[in-house]
Amino acid sequence: MPQYKIAYGNSIIDGGLFLRGQTPHSLIPEYEDGKGRSFKHLSTFSGKSTIKENLVEILNNAKAYVFFTSFLIQDGQTIQSLIEAARRLRGHVYVLTTLKDNDFDAIASLGNEIDDEQWNFKEHIECVQELVHNGISVRARKDCHAKFAVIDDKYAIVTSANAVPTCFTDIPQKNGRTREANPENGILFEMPSEVKRLSNFFRAIWRSAYNYYLPPDAHISEIGEFSKEIIPITCSEPASISDDGQIVWTAPGDCRILNSIAKMIDTAKQKIIISSWVIKGIEKHLLGHKLLEAAKRGVEIEILLRGMYRRDHLDSCYFLKKALREQINIRGDFCNHSKAVLIDNKEAMILTANIDSQHGLDSSVEMGFLSQQPDFINSVANFLDRLRAGCGLEFIANPKQKHAAEKFPTLSKPIFTGNLTINIEQRWKNRNQIINKLISEMNNQLVRISNHEEGRNQKVRLLTNNIIVDCVNRGENSLQILHISETTNAANLRFQQILPETTIEINVS
Amino acid sequence: MIPFEPTIEAKEKIWAKLSRCDGEFVIFLTRCHVHAVEACVAVRRQEHMDEFEYFVLKAIYILDYADIGKINGLLHIGRQIIQQITAKLSKGNLLSARTDGSFKVTALGKTVLDTGEMIRLEKKRHIFHFIDGNNEFVRISNPGSKFLVDLRPHETAADWNFNIESLQKCIDETDDWKQQRQFPTDIHELIRSGLENMASEESGSENAIVIDKAQLINCAILVKFSNNKPFELLAYPISPTGHLLAMDNLFSLTDERAILKVFPYINEIPDNKQSLAAFISLGQKYMLSNFENIIITSQRVHTTIESNNDDDINWTRFYWQNMQGNIFCDIASASTIRMNKLHVESKSNNQRAINLLFEIYKSYLSENNLKDISTYKAWLSEKAHLTDEPIRKLASLAWEFGNYRLAYNLAELEDITDATV
Hints:
The complex is a heterodimer.
Chain A: E1 4-8, E2 16-20, E3 39-45, E4 48-49, H1 50-60, E5 66-69, H2 76-89, E6 93-97, H3 101-107, H4 112-116, H5 121-133, E7 137-140, E8 148-151, E9 155-159, E10 171-172, E11 178-179, E12 184-189, H6 192-208, E13 212-214, E14 224-225, E15 246-251, E16 254-255, H7 256-267, E17 271-275, E18 279-280, H8 286-296, E19 300-306, H9 311-324, E20 328-333, E21 340-343, E22 347-351, E23 355-356, E24 366-371, H10 374-389, E25 393-397, H11 401-407, E26 420-424, H12 431-444, E27 448-454, E28 457-463, E29 467-475, E30 478-486, E31 497-498, E32 502-508
Parallel strand pairs in A: 5-6, 6-7, 17-19, 18-23, 19-20, 26-30, 26-32
Antiparallel strand pairs in A: 1-32, 2-25, 3-4, 3-12, 5-8, 7-13, 8-9, 9-12, 10-11, 13-14, 15-16, 15-24, 17-21, 20-25, 21-22, 22-24, 27-28, 27-31, 28-29, 29-30
Helix pairs in contact in A: 1-2, 7-8
Chain B: H1 8-18, E1 24-48, H2 51-63, H3 68-75, H4 79-91, E2 95-97, E3 103-105, H5 107-115, E4 117-131, E5 136-138, E6 149-150, H6 165-172, H7 175-181, E7 187-190, E8 211-226, E9 229-237, E10 251-253, H8 256-262, H9 272-285, E11 295-298, E12 302-306, H10 310-322, E13 327-331, E14 336-345, H11 351-364, H12 373-382, H13 391-400, H14 404-415
Parallel strand pairs in B: 12-14
Antiparallel strand pairs in B: 1-4, 1-7, 1-8, 1-14, 2-3, 4-5, 6-8, 8-9, 9-10, 11-12, 13-14
Helix pairs in contact in B: 2-3, 2-4, 3-4, 10-11, 11-13, 13-14
């Protein structure tokens, strides 16, 4: 006879998560990037990247010099185009990227981003070395997450995409599946004042606002340190702004992106659409406050995100969903990395920053392009429509445990079907305390499962937001507890599926 | 034995340091096997002569042959004192004693009478260095004994041998020869078996043993030429990897005959194939690979490179200037590396730009002062003899030559100057 019995599945969980919606892939419309007299909207979706096509094209057509900024560089064709440009121009190719692994980890705060994007710092550095060995000069700024390129002071690209394969193309996986390319966005423009604004910003960093440098050399690649400090970026800018749009940025003490987005939201009357890889720390941030105010005015809000299970991301979504209820729709997909803001189909911004209170809005170096030009607005709206069509997930606040399990997107077969038995050894002195904690968690939290082989044993890990329960699988839905730990880290640990509705029996033996 | 493998960087440094001399020269990197011959020699020592001794010697000289009685008859200083003095003079080889008890002044005694100074012979063990193979004497200055390395028996050639007659020949040479070769001029004779003639108290056959110690010395040899003939050779100590260890020379030779006798390979001129191989290896270091049109010819003191292709010549000239001109050829037969001056025959249109680029590289970049266009222009106006060339052209040339850092230092002057707003 079991000592304890729990009916798991009907409790409403505190918080929310991304669950399957109803949008099938067959409904995804044909998509083509928009363009205007002085710009082309760029994108990456599964199967096609106009960002990469145009980037490669402008690199191949560079006649004087290339300023290229990307947080990471791992894409072979981009590297080859940079090298060919350097050969053709006999140098004159300047690359700003990341050179230190701790900067990589810090900006990619990001945690999951490194894994999800299949980023590899070692491979990145090898690519950077290939650049310097082929006569390209490389520098790094600790806090630079921006991605842009300026060619001959004539053309410029600002994009959400890093120069890595996942941002440009579908990638076959070892398990036979294909990881679809990230949805990414960007703009190629030739507005003289804004191209110069951007190129002078780059020059200011290159001259005296960088931290590390890797001089071009056929044989040696040794990283030198120019400064330990985060240096302000001061550059000369055109006094007037182009009628077609404006470059804005985040730099130390210069939060133009945030200020512009705040102003845009203030003017919103009908609908705000935001796309970002992540939304983080919004609860106590100016932007969260502005969104709540807009909603009070009756503005509808839609946020398109990557539907990740990570605590800070889900907390910000939950905060907005709880506060705005039906006034906000938060949708998700599996790979989104684009960043855009669209207000009432009247003003739009494409940017490199995520909606992240720690990086991008208040600090770091990020770039954006802001415009009220109708062709640009239509292009961004069109892109967001296409992005939305691929968002098969929806953020649901306070779902029941069983609904979360049913709708959670997973490709793995259910690990447990039927009742689940959990055995705990008699000899554990604090077993009653452990059992009480276990019961409390299972009654109020979502139980997530990960399993893996370890030697002959199949290990199963049960996770809630507060505890980690490591077990060995005895077969026939029976688990033997090996270890229980109480930790807040549990909220961000990876898992494969959510425990479906079941009866859990806890035995002490 | 530590292998002798000078690195290309070490060779370039040696070249940079030793090639500052004027005129024509060739530098060799080699390792010499040396006989460090320790032998017993009689060395002449001068002392002031006592007045009584002088008078006794002079009296015997005047009398030609004289016994004690005759000398005392002339000097009246007492037979006992004269006996003591003649014994001392005989011991100093100034008098020879005859069986009838009379004395005669020796040649050495006559010299002493002429100079008024007493010359005494002293037995001493002395080390002389001879280069193996030709057994030529060289005076090696080896402070602290740090540059010569002792060889173990198995490290020497099978026919390792030193003929003591080579030393005897040096001792028998004229004073002029000795001064020119820095051979000690005070050595009276080589002592081969005791010191019979010196009546030394220390005489003994063990002192006459000759020790031939095998030693090795790694050196950079600078040979200066005049009219295609070597007239001075200076040897400097280097490490097995080719790093110059001191700027004071280890030994020197100053006549053509000796130079060619000691280092006969100086006359060996690398053939064109060897020179081309050396040039290709030099080019590879700088990632250069266009050798199709190169014509290369080595002469005694320089190697000439010609090409009808401007591009080939452009970068060759740049690197020739960059490295102050040198090309390294192995002379396998003598385990020696020959470093020749590189002479480039250029018909390039870019000559002015290359000259300016080299000046920038040499003086301006070394001060790390290539900051902006205005400082660059100021530097250029200081160097009034240099012609202005487009910066972009200079940067492109530097990039083509594989000197990417210089290329970007120049390119940034324009590329990183703010666009007009």
